[in-house]
Predict the structure of Tripartite tricarboxylate transporter substrate binding protein.
Amino acid sequence: MDRRGILAGMAALTLARPALAQGTWPDRPIRWIVPFPPGGSTDLWARLMAEPMAAELGQPIVIDNRGGAGGLIGTEAAARSTPDGHTMLFTITTHVTSPVVLRRFPYDPVNDFAPIGKLGVTPLVLCASPSTQGNTVQEFVAWARGKDLSYGSYAPGSSGHAYGQMFSDEARLNMTHVAYRGEGPMLQDMLAGNVACAFHSMAASGGAIRSRRIRPLALSGTRRLPSLPEVPLMEEAGFSKRFAFSGFIGLLAPARTPQPIVDRTADLFRRVVENPATQRRLLEIDTIPDWLGPAAFREDIARCLREWEVIATELNLFVQG
């Protein structure tokens, strides 16, 4: 074969590789970046979904916890990863809230990703630490007023951070924000009595609530939890409608991931979310299943981004990253 024929053959082989990679995907372990440390709710949801999906795909799904900067570090790594379906991002609402509040956009929350699917939503629970008093939000406020206290959040710029500030402002309390690198560390510090209160997900804090080591006072969102029927919504307790902001839990791939891979992953993700066993487990950890496919999930992410820009501006929630 002459040189021209060799070069033509090499070019044809190069062009064939993406199609071959798509056809055989996955041909090695898949990495899901979770932009928070182990032990928090995001980590728990990711592992709940990864196991049945890995069994179906025939390759392990490895959870890569990369906490820091309100989720920005792990999310930026996912955005810059090779878009071949072997690296994805399992994340939550901080995907849009952190860059807005930190005023750092190392990634575009909408355009740098190919959404796979939305798992659902979960309210956050305002919990009081064992170092405080009051079994209702009104009793806690009465005890806390006039004291120098602190509230925790699982990341600066997160909805938990915003809710804590809104609660402190609307209840006229003097509370300082303490940011953690994930819910796990925040919960441990709260159990030790080092922060007075925090907005937790039930996925991470349910065990501590059920064992009465921390006290649930009120809920964000618009619907009470079946497992905490006596705990009111923040709005029912006299606070503003801002506490009804609704975020997301879901899976994304880097932009330019081949469409066949996105479609196959989305179909599998949907089937796992809609599986009765998964639905039961999600409800057990107070997560409300709310599947959205790729296109609808993209719109939902864009909606969250718009709404959060308004909330951040109203609260002057901007912080240094």
